[in-house]
Specification:
It is a single chain. By secondary structure, this protein is of the alpha+beta class. The protein folds into 3 domains: 132 residues, Son of sevenless (SoS) protein Chain: S domain 1 (Son of sevenless (SoS) protein, Chain S, domain 1, Up-down Bundle); 88 residues, Ubiquitin-like (UB roll) (Roll), CATH 3.10.20.90; 235 residues, Son of Sevenless (SoS) protein, Chain S, domain 2, CATH 1.10.840. 54% of the residues lie in helices and 8% in strands. It has 25 helices and 9 strands. Strands 5-4-6-2-3-9 form a 6-stranded mixed beta sheet, with helices on both faces. A 3-stranded antiparallel beta sheet has the order 1-8-7. A hairpin with a 2-residue loop joins strand 7 and strand 8. The longest helix has 22 residues.
């Protein structure tokens, strides 16, 4: 990808002053007439690529406390310089929100800056507004009178290393007990119920969700952890199921209590297959709406910085891309769910109804501007184990085949997904993009351009990445309306929230050949 290279010397000593001196400039910056605020946003979104947060904190403190030894800087210049630093810190904390506040070292840095402002406000009254801003940031309701956070205190381990370049695997704090994650409770070796639950959920709470999903009496079931070596342990009702599973690096299985001794999981049987047709009695718009509400909750929680971390370090994604990973996992599970529902239906007439239903749901997801579930459903219908069902597809009415063809055209990858991009651009906000494609765009920019050239930071590349990442803001300009599905189907929400999927292509093919053997 050809482009003009805008470069800044690597390292905080020059990079940060460069950003600060351009902030507040009245002239346009860069080839594309970038404003100073856009340049600042580019820097804050991507600085972890080329410098540590330690570097940034130290540079900001140096710049704030700098003294002109030649005596050429008057009071207005000093206050202007200090306010630029404070503006950058304010924008930084606003952009990163809880990402910064989870880190005790960075809290310490913010308090140190605050203490500096507190010391300076009498000499430079113009800083009073910035002081109040920092009181809001730090949740303070009165001024500190003690020297607890004096910038003159010596502490060589003052700042936390939080950097893409040097330490991708740094934790952002311990896992919160109220944090919601996806966990899988296996019904068979290859099929599971996807459960979104709090880390502190008990085994009884998890078991209740699964029992409702598979329509089996809860009192006849047991939740068991099975390690990769085959060691089994039955969880007690009050055990923290998810924590226990993490501790032993094991899978959670559900078993019938009458088989506890042998601990044989459910077999893929006719009874289980019949449960899949419950979806036929649920309104398609309501199903699509519940999918959209669920996806919006995941999408809205994604921090822009997660896309940067995902792109620049695959191995670090588990620690720094939690919300993004949940949405990607959901997209994959919806795709598998579509295939699972169809392939567990042994009756041809009902299977035809299911395919028609999923086509309508995909159309409704598109109408609701949820391209995440839209793509997932279309891909699920195009899964090889489903697309080979010739007897089923032959009985699909012509109008549904035509509708599906139109929907498929939006997923056409030709001309760099032009059909999707054109359609998505015309959709008003709020809307949910197909996240794998957005990640592909960021990755393409990253891999097609060097981050450093002759030890200089290629800011033009970082602007392109930041500009792509900022598209999330446009998608989230407005909130989805609080439209809720009709209450006539009380099981709709748990049905959509806890999908039952078969996560094994060989198992799906075996089911496919069982219901429609090769002629």
């Amino acid at each position: 990808m050809g482009m003009r290279n805008e470069q800044v010397t690597l390292g905080s000593k020059l990079a940060v002053p460069f950003i600060l001196t351009t902030r507040g400039a009245t002239t346009a910056l860069g080839r594309d007439g970038l404003s100073a605020e856009t340049l600042l946003d580019d820097f804050l979104l991507t600085y972890t690529v080329f410098m540590t947060t330690d570097d940034l904190c130290q540079a900001l403190l140096r710049h704030y406390c700098a003294k002109n030894h030649q005596g050429k800087e008057d009071d207005s210049d000093v206050s202007c310089r200090k306010r630029k630093v404070l503006h950058l810190v304010s924008q930084w904390t606003s952009l990163y929100k809880d990402w910064l506040h989870e880190d005790e070292h960075l809290k310490q840095f913010l308090k140190t800056i605050y203490r500096n402002v507190l010391d300076d406000v009498y000499e430079y009254p113009i800083l009073e507004k910035d002081l109040k801003e920092f009181q809001k940031i730090l949740g303070m309701h009165r001024r500190h009178t003690v020297d607890e956070y004096s910038p003159h205190r010596k502490n060589k381990t003052f700042f936390h290393q939080f950097s893409v370049k040097e330490n991708w695997l740094q934790h952002r704090g311990t896992m919160n007990e109220t944090e919601e994650i996806f966990c899988r409770v296996y019904i068979t070796e290859h099929s599971y119920v996807s459960v979104k639950a709090q880390v502190s959920s008990s085994a009884q709470e998890i078991l209740k969700i699964v029992a409702e999903k598979i329509q089996y009496p809860e009192e006849e079931l047991a939740l068991v952890t099975v390690t990769f070596s085959g060691e089994k342990h039955e969880l007690q009702p009050n055990d923290l199921a998810i924590s226990k599973s993490f501790e032993s690096s094991s899978r959670m299985f559900v078993y019938r209590k009458d088989l506890t001794d042998s601990l044989n999981p459910f077999a893929e049987n006719e009874e289980l297959q019949q449960r899949s047709v419950r979806i036929l009695g649920i309104n398609t718009w309501d199903l699509a709406l519940e999918l959209t509400n669920f996806d919006w909750g995941l999408f809205n929680a994604i921090h822009e910085q997660e896309l940067i971390y995902f792109t620049f370090s695959r191995q670090g994604s588990a620690e720094n891309t939690e919300n993004l990973s949940l949405l990607l996992q959901r997209c994959n599970e919806v795709q598998l769910w579509v295939a699972t529902e169809i392939l567990l239906c042994s009756q041809l007439c009902k299977r035809v109804q299911l395919v028609k239903k999923f086509i309508k749901i995909a159309a409704h997801c598109k109408a609701q501007r949820n391209l995440n579930s839209f793509f997932a459903i279309v891909m699920g219908l195009n899964t090889a184990s489903v697309s080979r069902l010739s007897q089923t597809w032959e009985k699909i009415p012509g109008k549904f085949k035509k509708l599906f063809t139109e929907l498929e055209s939006l997923t056409d990858p030709s001309l760099n997904h032009k059909a999707y991009r054109d359609a998505f651009k015309k959709m008003k906000s709020p809307k949910i993009p197909f996240m794998p494609l957005l990640l592909k765009d960021v990755t393409f920019i990253h891999e097609g351009n060097k981050t450093f050239l002759d030890n200089l930071v290629n800011f033009e590349k970082l602007h392109m990445i930041a500009d792509t990442v900022r598209s999330l803001r446009h998608c989230r300009n407005n909130q989805f309306g609080n439209e809720v599905a009709s209450k006539e189907h009380h099981e709709l929400k748990p049905y959509i929230h806890h999908l039952h999927v078969i996560d094994n292509q060989q198992a799906l093919f075996e089911l496919s050949h069982r219901i429609e053997p090769r002629v």
